[in-house]
Design brief:
One of its GO terms (molecular function) is metal ion binding. There is one protein chain. The protein has eleven helices and two strands. Strand 1 and strand 2 form a beta hairpin. The protein is mostly helical. The mean pLDDT is 96. The chain has a domain of 141 residues: Hypothetical protein, domain 2 (Endonuclease III, domain 1, Orthogonal Bundle).
């Protein structure tokens, strides 16, 4: 299977980013580059939860609306959301109005408050699950891994919801815990260099 296409600049890209116009800038600027910021990591976990059963295009196009609705994904603020906030979110046509996913996001914000208390940061916690590079399968050949299973189990044990191994694997791809850019993609080496320059939080 050919996992690359030629981008508008004549360079190869992961094939998936050519399916819709908004994927190319996301692929080039964000996907696969290491992230150590707690707010961005929490946002991505939440958005991946909302994506479950939907397309990433749907979520990406609504991302700014999600940020506005969920207080910029400040976990401390979201953790204090109450019944009025839940009603507000269920009435917000700019986001995905799924009560279970909304409740899970508020729950996960509360669990993150607990995790930060015990582990120092979400970043320090999730980066412990980065798999060794030499254990990774061929890029874009799987949708889950031992590392995503382990991280999913660790989060579930702490009470987090809507974060199964496949959802967590997508999170790890996007946040640079694995470099899943296709072989030949112009961004693969850039993502690898970004990881070499990145020091995981402890």
């Amino acid at each position: 299977m050919d996992r690359t296409i030629i981008g508008p600049d004549g360079k190869a890209r992961c094939a998936w980013c050519g399916t819709v116009p908004e994927f190319l800038p996301y692929h080039d600027a964000e996907w696969g580059f290491p992230v150590g910021d707690d707010t961005r990591l929490f946002e991505k976990l939440c958005l991946e939860s909302f994506q479950s059963g939907l397309s990433w295009r749907t979520i990406l196009n609504k991302r700014d609306n999600f940020r506005a609705a969920f207080a910029g994904f400040d976990h401390r603020k979201v953790a204090r959301f109450d019944a009025a906030d839940r009603a507000r979110l269920m009435a917000d046509t700019g986001i995905v109005r799924n009560r279970q996913k909304i409740d899970a996001t508020i729950n996960n914000a509360q669990r993150m408050c607990e995790l930060v208390e015990t582990e120092g940061s979400l970043a320090a916690f999730v980066w412990r699950f980065e798999p060794p590079a030499d254990t990774l399968p061929e890029p874009q050949s799987v949708t889950t891994s031992d590392a995503s299973v382990a991280l999913s189990k660790a989060l579930k044990k702490r009470g987090w919801k809507f974060l199964g191994p496949t959802t967590v694997f997508a999170f790890m791809q996007a946040m640079g815990l694995i470099n899943d850019h296709a072989e030949g993609c112009a961004l693969r080496d850039k993502a690898a260099q970004a990881r070499r320059d990145f020091t995981p939080p402890v």
